[in-house]
Amino acid sequence: MKRVSGQARYRIVVGLLVIILVYYAYKTLTDYNSRIIHEDQLEFARTKGSPVVISVFYEALCPDSKNFIVKQLKSAYSKLPNLIEIEFFAYGKATTTVQQDGSLSFQCQHGPTECEGNIIHCCAIESIHDTETKLDFIACMIRDNGNPQKAFQRCSREYTVDAETIQKCYSSLHGKELLKIAGENTQALNPPVSFIPTVLIDGQQRRQATILRDLFAEVCVVLSESGLTPKACESI
How far apart are CA 160 and CA 180, in angstroms? Predict the structure, then answer.
């Protein structure tokens, strides 16, 4: 039997090492792709224009609105920031009256202070374009919802917003016009509003009790129905 030379053995060993290195390089790349698939899904969703749209119909002084925005909405958004867009409508169960001279007046469920707060919220909603900043600012103001002006001043110092524009909007007729529009959107809901907050996901009221209790889980259900299961939803 012919013996294998030292040079031949060396080539065999090198060949085996190359095969092993190629195998581990492939495995590492596969694992890496597996880790980033969640980010790929998020980017795909945004590219295709398919983030879940959460529409919140609320009131500035409403305790249930405060609880939902601070606890449910902020939590859900923090877990799926690239898959959620948010719309705010600060009006609730208010009523709008157009006077003979064309001026606007409002009656809000929690009194004149709430109307004041709703207008400030409407102005902030229009002025702030970044979803995360808007959510943080609205949540900041509604935490201290007993004094809307004080809350606005405090939150304006905490977050980078155009406070001057928001204040001018509030002090002008434009603020009231925005509140009227928020009311029109609220009153157009079908079925009509019976509880505040009312929250829509992709334009549908779905199961309101579930949404108000566990928004994140309901958003995951909606994403699953569209064929997308983000990693954050896998633990549900």
Answer: 27
